[in-house]
Amino acid sequence: MEPIRNFLRHKTTAVKFYEAECTNVDYEKRLVHISDRSEVKGAVSGTEIPFDYLVVAVGAESATFGIPGVHKYGLFLKEVEDAQRIRKRIMDCVETAAFKDQSVEEMKRLLHVVVVGGGPTGVEAESYDLDNSKITEEIPYGLLVWATGNSVRPIVQSLMNQIPEQAHSRRGLTVDEHLAVRGANNVWALGDCAVANCAPTAQVAAQQGTFLAALLDQRFEVEEMEEKLKALGAEHCATSGPERYSIGAEMRDLHKKLRRKKQIAPFEYTHQGSLAYIGSEKAVADITWFTGDSVALGGLLTYFFWRSAYLNMCFSTRNRLLVAGDWIKSYVFGRDVCRE
């Protein structure tokens, strides 16, 4: 992981970062309410931030479909904390299974991992056999991983309820071809919280982030040009002679640049392939060529390709060196299985 402050300290623009949870967005008043969720509390633990432009990129949460016991007994695959909980649970299960005088049946249960991921249709539907009796099966487990897809976060649902055009959306904030939230003014959304006719993957979100950053830069440049044109127009009316002609020529040139700047191309997702590590120093890949064709690969060479791609996606040279160093240590000394 890379601390976000490592990036901000090298930026010359005025950027403020607050480690907080967004608890509410008041669209009418243009306010974002935030709360400090850290263990250390100060005199102020909740406040609000006014906004002119808002980008919503909070992702989604795991869908439980209202099934009792999921939050209490299941572990999700969404956040870094989820991965840490799964790691801790696996270690607990292994150590408990190795406890003295543990029965074979209990050892099998503790070392049994159940992954639930049947999709919303399979989870919501009830299954019956031919004589209409309900099919039920009890599966003992030591670790339950819940991976049944995404659902809308409460903060996103609250914002959707404030925008009439979002009333009928069930999957998230519907956006146009420029990722602007439909029915809202100066609000954009990207990633899993947005409905943009793209798969909810990290690759899509990364490309959307790059596109939206360029779009906002372009929008701010347009606003600066319009302000400059307004000032030049007032100056043009107040002058005469050669100076008036010079200002007029500058205005015509600025008008041409402004027209070009306002021509913003829509977002287009470019699939660059998929990579997955499957263990035992093997990986699989679905690589898309420039022609649009794709090829499936697997094996040891694909594993090295996956590692090189992973390093390339790290944000800084420092992070690349740290990750590569961890890989080398794991290869030489084995995985670190300590608790913390």
TrEMBL record:
It catalyses: a quinone + NADH + H(+) = a quinol + NAD(+); a ubiquinone + NADH + H(+) = a ubiquinol + NAD(+). GO terms for cellular component: mitochondrion. InterPro entries: FAD/NAD-bd_sf, FAD/NAD-binding_dom, NDH-2, NDH2-like_C. The keyword Oxidoreductase applies. Its EC number is 1.6.5.9. Pfam families: NDH2_C, Pyr_redox_2. The keyword Oxidoreductase applies. GO terms for molecular function: NADH dehydrogenase (quinone) (non-electrogenic) activity. Residues 271-336 form the External alternative NADH-ubiquinone oxidoreductase-like C-terminal domain. SUPFAM superfamilies: FAD/NAD(P)-binding domain. Keywords: FAD, Flavoprotein, NAD, Oxidoreductase, Transit peptide. Residues 14-125, 137-209 form the FAD/NAD(P)-binding domain. It is an enzyme of class 1 (oxidoreductase). Belongs to the NADH dehydrogenase family. This is NADH:ubiquinone reductase (non-electrogenic). It comes from Hortaea werneckii (Black yeast). The lineage of its organism: Eukaryota, Fungi, Dikarya, Ascomycota, Pezizomycotina.
